[in-house]
Amino acid sequence: MLHKLDLQEVIVEVKDVWKVFYLRTGVFTKRSLYALRGVSLRLLRGEVLTILGESGCGKTTLGRVILGLEEPSFGEVFWFGQSLKSLSKKEYKVLRPKIQAVFQDPTSSLNPKMRIKDILIEPLNINFNLSRKEKLTKIVKVLNRVGLSEKVLEVYPHELSGGQRQRIALARAIILYPKLLVLDEPTSALDMPIQKQILDLLKELKSSLQMSYILITHSVNIASYLATRIAVMYLGKVVEVFPCESLGRVAHHPYTELLLSASLDPFKPIKPKLSSPKGELSQHLNEFKGCPFYPRCRYRKTQCEVAIPELLEVSPGHYVSCFEHL
To answer: How much is the pTM?
Structure first.
């Protein structure tokens, strides 16, 4: 499913990435938890690749692996065509500022003991040799970009609203002018009106700063609002990848159909037909013999229980891991 493009156009790539956590179940025993199972994806320059799935599907773990915060158990991660495994400390220091993150809860991602001015000055201290005046100029400029005034510089995070804190987290991420932002549920801790403001801000920043995004979300509506391409994950596997404009207009993976049926948009005149999944949710604790969605799938066949379908292209840019589509 890899695009035939020059590596210079590829911001991030993961190749057959697995992540296994080991859970201690006794003094001498432990079990394996498979958070990622053979994930391969590419993010191209200028794209918004949305990782879509319900809680526990592995999307946040994938984001942390892409950021280099977790090492994959197997497989490789590439930044700008270079494997993280082979990067020297000097090369890593050059590339690290180009990839930044905004996490779900701005309260926990901002140091409560630091004033906003110090929070924003910290990445500049680490990465640039600037005078204090130059740093303050950059900080005021980035605050204006995210819709805040310099009045917030002397306050602490707890003195701001949730939306303001998320704007500060965003300002801290973009102050280095990165090529990529990894956004892990960036609006889920906010009220609905504030969510829309942050999403609109993300759209504007992507255009004006020419960044690429990896957006991690459980919301179909948020995915469709920002995405260029959508990758759907289920129990650590990517089960479908498609252009955003195809959402709801093509035959999707059964799990994607389930997500769409549960996506309630009060502004849509036609209400979706809700369907209940069959069977029990499989566990991360075991390696699968067949399709992970088999126990819940209404299209399931005998071969689904014993063989894992490959992620294959069924139409231009549309990849599905399902025997029903083959």
So the answer is: 0.89
